[in-house]
Amino acid sequence: MTAYIADVARWQKGLALTELVKAGFGAVNIKTSHGLTVGEPLYPDQPDDIARAREARAAKLRLCTFHWLDGSASGVEQANVAFSRIKALGGPTGVAHSVDAEEKDLPPTWAIWFDYVNTMQKLLGRPILTYTGDWWWKPRFGSKNAGAITPYLWAAPNDGYVGSYPGDKSPLWKAGYSGWTNLSAMQYAVEPPFGPGVTTTVKVSKTAIRDLNVWKATSGVAW
User: Fold this and answer.
1) CATH topology for the 3-219 domain
2) What is the model's pTM?
3) Which helix (H) or strand (E) holds 116?
4) Which of 19, 20, 63, 154 could be disulfide-bonded to 185 (CB atoms 3.0-4.6 Å)?
């Protein structure tokens, strides 16, 4: 069974999560924090992460969270902020987590990423995913063995979005950098959800997980 996840952050303002259920998604990836900041302060009229988590549970969607990592503070400090939000959402049990490493203006150092991942994994008691792209990661940390710290990479295929899910056996699952042989979660498109009865035109980032052991390892529960 392949599982499908959609991102929910400020770009998805106005999206009813029931639309994702109609389109076949089984989980949402909710932004909880950015550096040392909680939520999306530039968009105060948007539902916050707690409201979104409540809406997701009501729609029977599983929860994943993500933290936007930057260079504003240490990895330990940022992990503590993100973990506080995971607890506020009813976690940590049953809530997967990824650290988003793609900041351009104030990018995190290797030490910040390293400390974030190790701290968060200790707090959760299980591994997390790293969301990034070879375009961002390789120029900065390409020779580092990140896969030894967390084996779970969440990214688009190395050549970019493909528009529709290419299948579990696609060669596009290959990553081949920083100790990550393959993607654990493939973000394959950014577009509105499609399906019977879906009416929204709000674009979402669409992700597939072909091995549900990834979900169990990172959330603590079976899909």
Assistant:
1) TIM Barrel (3.20.20)
2) 0.95
3) helix 110-124
4) 154
